[in-house]
Amino acid sequence: xxxxxxxxxxPRRLGILPDARAAIESSLLAAARGGCALLLTSGSTSAGVGxxxxxxxxxxxxxxxxxxxxxxxxxxxxxxxxxxxxxxxxGNPGSAAVIFETLVAPLIRAGAGLDPHPPRARLRAELASExxxxxxxxxxxxxxxxxxxxxxxxxxxEKRSGAITLLGxxxxxxxxxxxxxxxxxxxEVDVTLLEDRAALPDALFVGSHCLGLLPLLAALAPLRARxxxxxxxGAIRSVARGLADAGGLxxxxxxGAYNVPVLERMRVPGVVLLRGWxxxxxxxxxxxxxxxxxxxxxxxxxxxxxxxxxxxxxxxVLLDELLAAESLRRAVPAADLAARLPGFDVEASxxxxxxxAVGAGLADAGLGIQAAAALAGLGFVPxxxxxxxxxxxxxxxxxxxxAALRGALGSQTLREALGRLPxxxxxPDAGEVLWTSPAGEEASVPVHAGRA
Length: 452
Prior knowledge:
Layout: H1 2-6, H2 21-33, E1 39-42, H3 53-60, E2 62-66, E3 70-71, E4 77-81, E5 84-89, H4 93-111, E6 122-127, E7 131-132, E8 138-148, E9 151-156, H5 165-169, E10 172-176, E11 182-183, E12 188-193, E13 203-207, H6 213-219, E14 225-229, H7 231-240, E15 246-249, H8 260-266, E16 271-285, H9 296-301, E17 306-309, H10 314-330, H11 334-339, E18 347-348, H12 351-359, E19 365-369, H13 370-375, E20 379-393, H14 400-409, H15 412-419, E21 424-426, E22 433-436
Parallel strand pairs: 1-5, 3-8, 6-9, 13-14, 17-18, 17-19
Antiparallel strand pairs: 2-4, 4-5, 6-12, 7-11, 8-9, 8-10, 10-12, 15-20, 16-19, 16-20, 16-21, 16-22
């Protein structure tokens, strides 16, 4: 409805309908006979048992196409019902958005007497990392856009089209023709914006999710920054590759040291680590801790179901350390312990997602930060206080962004905001340099492109 309004149309909402042919056909026919100039739906367009939109057109109207050579958006339906043009968008949010902007928005703008392809809806940007084509299909690759001086830089958003967060992190898409195998990093590309975004970010953070990032990004004003969650290892890869301006990480070494030993071992070139803050990690459990969880041993022995974190996250590293310690104590292989731990293979991408799983009764416990437990009204069993520090490139340390970041980290505003988050503690040396890559050192661990 909002997209139609932005394009200059006057939407009439039909509501959410069940995957039942009679309900869908009745509603669409009423709209077609009630004066609508275009019928537009989302969902029920694939070839599954519950997908019935194309059947309504096939048997009660005119089905022009069921499936187009576009990725994402292949299960798009085109037709007419009672003589009214019909477009059935896919159900996945990302697919629906790009197909709407590509096929539907220009049609609505033209019908409203507007320019079908207004100049403000496109911009030129340098591509930060490679985009692979989809042979035989036109690929509409979702990207985020960051300002770079007088120009822009576009980076592919690593989310599936079914993830609603894709629309929060993407600013537009790059159109890759079906005969193009790849678009190389550094190439100039045209980006079609999903909407008129006058306030594109000035900086990009990629790394571990943290509630402390919200007040940090606010303290960077007037600079505008966006945060994308890709785990602590994602921060290292993205900053080292020049994809991100900065990234947060909390990688623990056996014994309790954070971040610096990992960077030293990986020998990541060209980066510098700034001191951030500390936060408390522990087991998030239902309110009142009804299963009397005191630590990892009780979880294992009680057969409790956990929710795990993704392999690139610092929280997963901590869980693996706890598993290794129990393995040593019990003289049982860690893999065997993991195999008897229900939910070990169920991975949440953020602390909030893990807490939500516990709150919904899908898990008995999940390792996460205290603030996530408190926000969800859940119980918490402390395990370890950890460091959350910020990584950026050495070349940016003395730039306007580097100076703003260091100033924000040491600001009283951020200090007070962190003090209001349960389990967080501001550091008096926040913003100071903790570690710098040795000059001329090559990375021993490949810092490669791809999904973090």
